[in-house]
Design brief:
The chain is of the alpha/beta class. The chain has helices at about 20-40, 55-65, 70-85, 100-115, 175-185, 190-205, 230-235, 240, 250-260, 270-285, 315-325, 325-335, 345-375, 390-410, 410-435, 435-440, 445-465, 470-480, 490-495, and strands spanning about 5-15, 40-50, 90-95, 120, 125-130, 135, 140, 150, 160, 165-170, 190, 210, 210-215, 220, 225-230, 265, 290-295, 300, 305, 340-345. It is elongated. It binds 5'-O-[(L-methionyl)-sulphamoyl]adenosine.
């Protein structure tokens, strides 16, 4: 029996560049939550996609000498391949140039037009194409040449003025309703630091938002005024609706079951769009508002935000080639506290890999599997209850509650630490029980069997909880323990109950799951 639906999104990414470590970060995080909640009994939807309209993408295409559509088409494989490489199990991939997205955008804004939330006016002000964002003059910064630059990306901004008539959404009318909503839903914006920023921003007053452009045609035409295309954010946010079937008659039931979203995972740079504009749009449409917007921090290299344009963007595939996909996922999820900015480095990645994966988890499997071979001819021994002390069971018994609470708070670091605590305890247990000594004494045969059984059973349970972070190695451990397909688990709580590893199962030793790495031997060139 399913516990219900659980719907999650990543942002839909601009296609001006291929996915990099920053965009992969949000995507892996969303996938980790989704994988866990599938194992935890939920019917999960995970929507991702590509944000293809707007001036930034059109300019990029022009720079490449291609039509915007041809450029976007050429970028799709890069995104799909990156997500496949990282084992992302999305359920829908929305491209904003798809006809179904145009249906969503047209249906949604026509509805708001008919409800009186739009009016025509003219916008005089500043726009940053790179951020696809309007800025108030007093938010801008100046560069050395005295030019106004974007406060976020520091690029020169454009003055948009005169003559261009736009459609405006009456965002200013939502100041009070939004503040009331934040108050009544204190965990709508996570983590709390972001919530405070947004509340302060909204208290400062909201301006109406221009949601259409007429000087420019790379976008979805608005049906009530054909010369206008939707502003890129007035299009992109609605991809979340498209991804679970809005405006798709064949998916009406699905949409009803999956809306509203449980989480939108976004970087802190785009929380305003998600925490202010998006809920206001939904309030205007009379649609339920998502449960949580989680604004994570930035990955930094040497203290600076990593980005493709700054040229400090190593590609995910570079790291996967060295560390493997599971270690990639584990490092980013466990070593940077989700919600905070975090420095990443090759040295640190090797350190975490060697400590947590090679020396703790991987080594534990090798050691215990080898002992099973040596003392029990590669078969899980039958253990008599109480034949040996078992300090592992209480830790294993408490693991679901701990892990689940961490996942509920999107605390991947805590979740990984909870599993590592059990792995560390098994390593100590093996050390303390010294099976190699027990094996010398006939009278201790039952104790030896119990020690090996307890260690193997703990390994089974560790594999279960590592699976959302590291799906491949967990599947492999299940296989080596002669167990079924870990992917079929939909009730991790009962699967994790102690004592389910069948005695007599054949155990395969296999190669080390995480061979040790030497930082000096790694060459990224
Ligand atoms: N297209 C918009 C999102 C529309 S959602 C309706 C967009 N796209 S983006 O391609 O620029 O990337 C978005 C995501 O990547 C953001 O969540 C952003 O925070 C994240 N990251 C980009 N660089 C990053 C880091 N260096 N570190 C962590 N995440 C970063 O914005």
């Amino acid at each position: 029996m399913s516990k219900g639906t659980f719907s999650v999104t990543t942002p839909i990414y601009y296609v001006n560049a291929a996915p990099h470590l920053g965009t992969a970060y949000t995507t892996v995080a969303a996938d980790t939550v989704c994988r866990y909640q599938r194992m935890n009994g939920y019917d999960v939807a995970m929507v991702t996609g590509m944000d293809e309209h707007g001036q930034k993408v059109a300019d990029t295409a022009e720079g490449k000498g291609m039509s915007p559509q041809a450029w976007c088409d050429s970028m799709e494989p890069a995104f799909r391949e990156a997500w496949d490489l990282l084992d992302i199990r999305y359920t829908d991939f929305v491209r904003t140039t798809e006809p179904r997205q145009a249906r969503t955008v047209q249906k949604f804004w026509t509805d708001l037009y008919e409800k009186g939330w739009l009016y025509k006016g003219s916008y005089e002000g500043w726009y940053c194409v790179h951020e696809e964002t309007y800025y108030a003059e007093n938010d801008l910064e100046k560069n050395e040449d005295g030019e106004y630059v974007c406060p976020d990306c520091k690029r020169p901004v454009q003055l948009m003025s005169s003559g261009e008539e736009n459609w405006f959404f009456k965002l200013s009318e939502f100041q009070e309703p939004l503040l009331k909503f934040y108050d009544e839903h204190p965990d709508f914006i996570l983590p709390t630091t972001r919530r405070n920023e947004i509340v302060t921003f909204v208290k400062g007053g909201l301006k109406d938002l221009s949601i259409s452009r007429s000087t420019f045609d790379w976008g979805v035409p608005l049906p009530f005024d054909e010369g206008h295309v939707a502003y890129v954010w007035a299009d992109a946010l609605l991809a979340y609706a498209t991804g679970i079937g809005y405006a798709d008659p064949d998916r009406a039931d699905e949409f009803a079951a999956r809306w509203p979203y449980k989480y939108h995972f976004v970087g802190k740079d785009i929380t305003r769009f998600h925490c202010v504009i998006w809920p206001a749009m939904l309030m205007a449409a009379g649609m339920p508002i998502p449960e949580h917007i989680f604004g994570h921090g930035f990955l930094l290299t040497k203290g600076e935000k990593m980005s493709k344009s700054k040229g400090n963007g190593v590609m995910p595939s570079d790291l996967v080639n060295i560390f493997g996909v599971d270690a990639y996922r584990y490092y980013f999820m466990s070593d940077v506290q989700f919600g905070h900015d975090g420095n990443i480095s090759m040295e640190r990645m090797v350190q975490v890999y060697n400590a947590d994966l090679a020396n703790t988890w991987g080594n534990l499997c090798s050691r215990v599997f080898n002992m099973t071979k040596k003392y029990f001819a590669r078969q899980v021994p039958a253990a008599k209850p109480d034949a040996a002390a078992n300090p592992l069971k209480p830790i294993a018994d408490g693991l679901y509650a701990k892990f689940d609470a961490c996942m509920e708070n999107v605390d991947f670091t805590g979740a990984a630490a909870a599993v590592q605590e059990l792995a560390g305890a098994v390593n100590h247990y093996v050390e303390d029980s010294a099976p190699w000594n027990l094996a010398k004494d006939e009278a201790k045969a039952d104790e030896l069997a119990a020690v090996i059984y307890n260690a193997l059973e703990s390994i089974r349970i560790i594999a279960l909880f590592m699976a959302p972070l590291m799906p491949n190695t967990s599947a492999e451990v299940f296989r080596r323990l002669g167990l079924g397909d870990i992917d079929e688990i939909v009730d991790i709580e009962s699967a994790a109950a102690w004592g389910q590893l069948p005695a007599g199962n054949p155990v395969e030793i296999g190669d080390p799951l995480f061979p040790r790495l030497d930082v000096d031997a790694i060459n990224l060139d």
